[in-house]
Write a structure and sequence with these properties.
Elements (H helix, E strand, L loop, with lengths): L4 E4 L10 H9 L2 E4 L3 E5 L2 H6 L9 E4 L2 H13 L9 E4 L2 H7 L9 E4 L8 H6 L4 E6 L6 H8 L3 E6 L1 E5 L12 E4 L2 H10 L9 E5 L1 H9 L4 E5 L7 H9 L3
Parallel strand pairs: 1-2, 1-10, 4-5, 4-7, 5-6, 7-8, 10-11, 11-12
Antiparallel strand pairs: 3-9
Helix pairs in contact: 7-8
């Protein structure tokens, strides 16, 4: 069956050079973007109930831009002045670059992994007797605690924000040929909003093993999956599907 309409369960990309734009132009398809989930920040009271005192930590582990935003938001709300001597351990260059929104980069101690926290093992060893704070959402990839424990890092988790299902009720009568998902939470949102959802001829595209497992658990038929050897990106996987490869 021909693909004419696609709904991507993420915010629309900012750049006009987005690979989705190229897909639209090349195959004359209509691609809409709609976040199926969104983030809501917790309050200072929520943090205190977790018995967390920011004063007790000189080192912050940052795994996402959301973690950066909500750490500094809560610090301000709780009237905690983040010391200039605080050390930041960033999972990637993207997170470290985003940190510049809140601190003067060249005047701070910032350590950066290439892709993951595991890349910072040698750096953690330099400060092996220190305590680390890990700001997270309500959802934390199991691999992160596992890696930190393996490296014998003295770390404490603090939940500063949570992932919430978005209201999609206005889409009830809107049909798409392809629905694209990037997380198990997106699959959960689909069935929370539409408990009676029936896939029928709708194609389901998933990115990542955890998303694929969530889709399979929900008895969805997976038509497009990425990453793979032939399709390292979601846009490439969709393109290959449309071309019948």
């Amino acid at each position: 069956m021909k693909v004419k309409t696609i709904l991507v369960s993420q915010p629309a990309p900012n750049s006009e050079k987005s690979p989705y734009k190229r897909l639209e132009e090349k195959f004359k398809v209509k691609i809409d973007f709609r976040p199926f989930i969104h983030v809501e920040g917790l309050t200072g009271k929520d943090v205190r109930q977790q018995k967390i005192d920011f004063n007790n930590f000189d080192n912050i582990i940052l795994t996402s831009r959301n973690a950066v935003d909500h750490f500094f938001r809560l610090a301000e709300e709780m009237r905690f002045k983040v010391p200039d001597t605080t050390k930041y351990f960033c999972q990637s260059e993207a997170v470290a670059y985003y940190l510049q929104k809140y601190v003067v980069y060249r005047k701070r101690k910032i350590y950066v992994g290439e892709r993951s926290i595991a890349d910072l093992e040698a750096t953690f060893k330099k400060f092996k007797n220190e305590k680390y704070l890990l700001p997270t959402s309500d959802i934390l990839k199991p691999s992160i605690p596992q890696v930190l424990d393996q490296m014998k890092v003295d770390w404490t988790r603090v939940q500063l924000y949570k992932t919430v299902v978005s209201d999609l009720s206005d889409l009830r009568d809107v049909k798409y040929d392809v629905l694209v998902f990037f997380s198990p939470s997106g699959i959960e949102s689909l069935f929370t909003n539409f408990p009676d959802f029936e896939q029928n001829k709708t194609r389901i595209a998933v990115f990542g093993n955890s998303t694929q497992k969530a889709a399979e658990k929900a008895d969805l038929r997976i038509d497009i999956a990425a990453p793979s050897e032939k399709s390292p990106s979601m846009t490439m996987a969709i393109e290959n599907y449309i071309q019948g490869k």
